[in-house]
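We include the pair:
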Amino acid sequence: MPQLVTPFADLDLIRQPEQQNEPLQAFDAADEYLLSHLHEQGIGPEHRVLLLNDGFGALACSLATHCQVTSSGDSHLGHLALQKNLARNGLAAEAVRFVPASETAQGPFDWVLIRVPKTLALLEEQLIRLHGQLAPDARVVAGAMIKHLPRAAGDLLEKYIGPVQASLAVKKARLLTATAQTKAAPVSPYPTRYTLDKPAIELINHANVFCRDGLDIGTRAFLPHLPRHLGRIRVADLGCGNGVLGIAYALGSPQAELTLVDESYMAVQSARENWQAALGERAVEIRAGDGLAEQAADSLDLVLCNPPFHQQQVVGDFLAWRMFQQARAALVTGGELWIVGNRHLGYHAKLKRLFRGVEQVAATPKFVVLKASK
């Protein structure tokens, strides 16, 4: 893999999750542009720098020995990559402080470097939380590849920080520099809420939750066909989002033991609050994680999953395939993986390569619900 070479460091970086013959690198021209700009402006050990959405730790590892670095993002896999890349490059784990996006990073910060996220609601919430956290004369710089930089990103910077200046393009990347102005304390529009009829629950959704304003159509197709069990069965909602599948299942299976896991800290935060509202103090494990990578083998009877089809800006079935493999390893013999997926993704054929039996439970014109038995 190519190294990231900047005025700050020469780094060997990996993505998470790792895959053989990785086709993508762990940094891009927008990372290089942000670091080049920071070097030109001058940075020293006295400066406090906040990094937002630093995908796999390229910015944090570059700056770790040059200033006081706090990194904040919503990806558990991104946090894992940061830890691995610090160790990989001989940097101390404590050289970078990590704050999940479900919490607010405490300033004051002299610099804020932002990788513009795919979900602009996340960017908006992050900019809102910068209120009161900027040092006098602080500079806020957002970077992205031009193809992933919507006009609305600049509008949000202007609304919450101040006037924005766009840079020239370099290697198809662009920077937006916002000059901080004194503004009234903003009111966040997040979390959002929506209600379901069946089951009759209200769901809250923090800023980076998938389908924040209403139930996604895949889950809508899945809910009427969730299995019900009366006994003490061990169940995981894999990639739980706001927790709707796990909560709906738990309401119909009162003795089931549930684990809800997602790689988004804001999803986990949403799932915890939604579980509490719907099920009170009923025991549950809700965690941020790399899917079921940390789940003991043969420890689950049932896995429910509405798998993702992208990681950041990259579309593909790599994550879904990995989740299917993790589910198989975690299930007992005879255990079942239930999924919903777009018809055209061909999950039926993929699951047949891992499981002894695959059945179609239900179908709509766009989606299929499949049951795979180990």
